[in-house]
Write a structure and sequence with these properties.
The protein is α+β, with helices and mostly antiparallel strands. The protein folds into two domains: 1-32; 40-109, no CATH class. It has one helix spanning 4-31; strands spanning 40-46, 49-54, 65-71, 79-86, 89-94, 99-103, 108-109.
Length: 113
């Protein structure tokens, strides 16, 4: 029949493309790195201020990790920052332009981390 072979080839081609796309999507999903669990692992507090050190990188670069600065009872959102271990202290650069140091001895490990 005239045209029958052309339709059959087109169907096979479309089926092959769809199977290829599904296979490629499945492989890409399997090869994606696992999502990091963004968990706090230590806190330090002084008066009404709580600093939380997290294990995720957030907006920080290199070996720096995310920190947050919050005031108890305040409706202001926590101020993000980046921290690194520097000898016996934690050096934190806050994204509002401030900088601070926290002695490692003042840190309290978060349960389950």
């Amino acid at each position: 029949m005239i045209g029958f072979d052309r339709q059959q080839r087109r169907r096979r081609f479309v089926r092959g493309v769809l199977v290829g796309l599904v296979a490629a999507g499945t492989m890409a999903t399997c090869m994606a790195p696992p999502k990091a669990r963004a968990e706090p692992f230590a806190t330090a507090s002084a008066g009404q201020v709580i600093v939380t050190l997290r294990t995720d990188q957030g907006p920080c670069v290199g070996r720096a990790r995310l920190a947050t600065f919050a005031t108890v009872g305040s409706s202001d959102p926590p101020v993000p920052g980046c921290w690194v271990l520097d000898g016996d202290q934690i050096s934190v650069s806050w994204l509002d332009g401030e900088r601070g140091n926290i002695p490692v001895a003042d840190l309290v490990k978060v349960r389950g981390s």
